[in-house]
Amino acid sequence: MHRGPVSPAPPARALILTCEHAGAQVPARYRACFIGARAQADLASHRGCDLGAGWLAERLAQRLGAPLFRARVTRLVVDLNRSLHHRRLLSEYTAGLPADERAHILAHYYHPYRERVGAAVAAGAGAATEVTEAGSAPGLVHLSIHSFTPALEGAVRAVDVGLLYDPARASERELCRRWQAALQTAAPGLRVRRNQPYRGVADGFTTALRKRFSADRYAGVELEVNQALVAAPSPRRRALAETLSASLLSALSVPAPG
Fold first, then answer.
1. Fewest beta carbons less than 10 Å away: which of 11, 76, 111, 148?
2. Three-state DSSP string of 36-96
3. pLDDT tens digits for 234-245?
């Protein structure tokens, strides 16, 4: 889903938002794959989608005045944040389907989403590069919004907000450094970590886009938020969304080094 801008974006930097795991919808064609209590439980859990991430993406898009691309089909049908070669591109519910059905899933859900976002990145990066080519800021900043479980395999994650990026790209590294500093100033108790709880160069959509666009045209950052903070409606999650958007605007207001 594409959402148009609500208010002006930061003037010196183009910005788009995506949320690859925003929903847990199952297309009618594949509902037979998800019959049974276990499948329904998986769909309702963090396996079905990134709990709270869709809401957060909508809120940030509104506050930042940026376009949003949001996927509603569950990643248990196909994971739009994985490369075609990734072993978890399809889940156990769809990996065993006949080859023509697997091809249908890719043709109707995976490729259209990634192509739409790729086209928007290309257009935004090209247009913004003309404005910022005299400086060192990337032409476009892509914020991919996710959430993670508070604990994994029994280990509690001591992270509230993770900023994932490629350390080899100076513009991404500096943007995340500035964003972390702005977040910690605005909310001193918030545990903000860089490249936690995952590595920013692991297989993902931003990693794939970095292979297509140079660092002077594109900066890809994955925002990972603890589901304990965003999975359920609360004043705390609304305040966090406001803090995230305001601190990102602050970080974007200063050009990053090339």
1. 11
2. CHHHHHHHHCCCCCCCCHHHHHHHHHHHHCCCEEECCECCCCCCCCCCCCCCCCCCCCCCC
3. 999 999 999 999
- β-strands 151-152, 155-156 pairing: antiparallel
- In degrees and rounded to multiples of 5, residue 54 shows phi and psi of -65, -45
pLDDT digits (tens, 9 = 90+) for 17-44: 999 999 999 999 999 999 999 999 999 9
Q: How many Cα atoms are found within 13 Å in the side-chain-facing hemisphere of 229? A: 25
CA 238 – CA 82 distance, rounded (Å): 29
122-123-125-126 Cα dihedral, nearest 10 degrees: 110
Distances (CA, A) of 220 to 94, 133, 157, 176: 29, 18, 24, 10
**What global pTM score does this model have?**
0.90
Are the C-beta atoms of residues 166 and 213 closer than 8 Å to each other?
no
**Residues 6 or more apart from 230 whose CB is under 8 A from it?**
51, 52, 53, 55, 56, 147, 237, 240
User: Distance between CA atoms of 133 and 128, rounded to whole angstroms?
Assistant: 8
- Distance between CA 157 and CA 148 in Å, rounded? 9
